[in-house]
Specification:
alpha+beta, four-stranded antiparallel β-sheet, elongated
Length: 473
């Protein structure tokens, strides 16, 4: 039953909507400063940065490393499409998304680090940068133009990987399933795949469960129990609702529980919208869908379950249930995955470009590797430390003095790790494959805290040192 407790916590991300407004006004403020700079210097500076960005883009497109990395990024998705996965459309689609988006995330980071390190460091070593140093272009504008140009290449790379993932997933129903699907879950068409696996939902508590820790109900043979959910007008009307159940019984050796009856109706309605009597699997989650045309999306939705009374040994049912409300479809989830990978590319492009003017090529690559690995593992490291501390405390192996010291160490370490860009923020680009919802507000908060604050924190020192370096003077 812990599965349904976890479902009720999905997408409850502690975010501040003000982050989106701050991020928006930060961008607007930067644009206004450039446009309203006295004597037209802001627009001249913008043209200089764009000119450097165009040169960097053309330079990056000509590098063989770009096309090598792009071809490598295509291989995992194609192999996943032609693999058998678990023999179902859902399994193959999940495998494709995991492989494609993970390849885009990792290889996109490798690409942006290599481009930035190769360009600036190589131009300084070959004295090409001396031509920039003699031009009336600020040093920081050179680095910003390089970062923008290489980030544009990364965006095209990520767009190609994302489009490939979408095309391959869309083509999944064209191949036959090799494993018999669950009879309760329709399968075989794109609509079935989109509904069963590619739409993320928020799972709601029943009205009587709000404020309570009860996650399941006991139903005696021949008796019924009800769950009541309140639907509001603002819910998405384009996707079906999902009723997710998990049923156990006092007869644990039965694989299925025949004769279990389900009735779904709106409170006060003359007729139910769904009535089914099924042999349901025991101890395995299963879904029923309520189509949009049958749902008013406003009012009280009542779900009634009746335990079978007949049989050699009538069993008492133990039932957990959640109502899933659609939040994001496949296109929205792919877009948010692309934005998360683009945020990663933005961070790496500006940090590595800023420091590549000071560090050599190998050291710049090492800095990029530290950022990527540290950003990937910072969240896991903190969670592991907190879990270990909780386990010691639960076993009584931790003294009170040690506990205070350990909490202080964990707090300091968390503060240190927060200085690194968290590339697994919101669960990463593949979070929606596991059903996690990526909130738009949380995405804006990540863009503000990492795309602005941490980028500036890491980049300013590198820009300052590059400004003081003797290049082309």
């Amino acid at each position: 039953m812990n599965l349904f407790v976890a479902m009720s916590e999905l997408s409850k991300v502690d975010v501040d909507p003000r982050s989106a407004l701050i991020l928006l006004w930060t961008v607007i403020g930067a644009v206004l400063v450039i446009l309203l700079w006295p004597n037209g210097r802001g627009r001249k500076l913008a043209r200089q940065i764009s000119a450097v960005a165009v040169l960097a883009f053309r330079e990056g497109v000509r590098l063989k490393v770009l096309w090598t990395v792009f071809l490598l990024a295509l291989i995992p998705g194609v192999l996943a499409y032609y693999s058998d996965a678990d023999g179902t459309h859902v399994g193959r689609a999940s495998l494709i998304l995991n492989y494609c988006l993970s390849a885009g995330e990792v290889l996109g980071a490798v690409l942006i680090v290599l481009l930035c390190a190769l360009s600036v460091a190589r131009e300084i070593e070959s004295r090409i940068m001396h031509t920039f140093g003699t031009k009336p272009v600020p040093r920081w504008a050179i680095l910003a133009g390089k970062a923008f140009g290489f980030w544009a290449i990364d965006l095209l790379f990520l767009l190609g990987v994302t489009v490939l993932a979408g095309v391959l997933v869309r083509a999944v129903p064209m191949r036959a399933e090799t494993r018999e699907a669950n009879k309760l879950v329709p399968s075989g068409t794109w609509d079935d795949l989109h509904r069963n696996a590619l739409t993320t939902r928020q799972y709601l508590l029943a009205d009587e469960e709000i404020g309570s820790s009860a996650a399941y109900k006991l139903i005696a043979p021949g008796k019924s129990r009800q769950w009541t959910y309140t639907l509001t007008r603002g819910m998405d009307r384009s996707e079906p609702l999902v009723l997710r159940f998990q049923v156990s019984s006092s007869e644990p050796f039965q694989s299925h529980l025949p004769g279990t009856k389900f009735v779904v109706a709106f409170e006060g309605a003359p007729a139910p919208i769904l009535t089914r009597t099924e042999a349901v699997p025991q101890d395995r989650p299963f879904d029923f869908f309520v189509e949009p045309k049958d749902v008013a999306r406003e009012g009280k939705l009542v779900v009634t379950i009746t335990a079978p009374e007949l049989g050699r040994r009538p069993a008492t049912l133990v039932v957990a249930m959640r109502l899933g409300v659609p939040v994001d479809g496949f296109s929205s989830n792919l877009l948010k995955a692309f934005l998360l990978m683009a945020l990663q590319g933005w961070i790496l492009a500006f940090i590595t470009a800023s420091w590549s003017g000071v560090l050599s090529f190998p050291v710049t690559v090492a800095l990029g590797a530290i950022l990527v690995l540290g950003g990937e593992m910072s969240r896991q490291a903190t969670a592991l430390l907190e879990t270990s501390a909780s386990r010691l405390q639960a076993l009584g192996l931790e003294q009170s003095g040690e506990s205070a010291v350990q909490k202080a160490v964990i707090s300091d370490l968390r503060l240190l790790l927060q200085m690194l860009p968290d590339f697994r923020v919101l669960g990463g680009p593949t979070a929606f494959v596991d059903g996690d919802i990526v909130s738009g507000w949380a995405l804006a908060q990540a863009g503000l805290s990492m795309g602005v604050a941490r980028v500036l924190g890491w980049s300013l020192l590198g820009v300052f040192l590059f400004h003081r370096r003797e290049v082309g003077r």
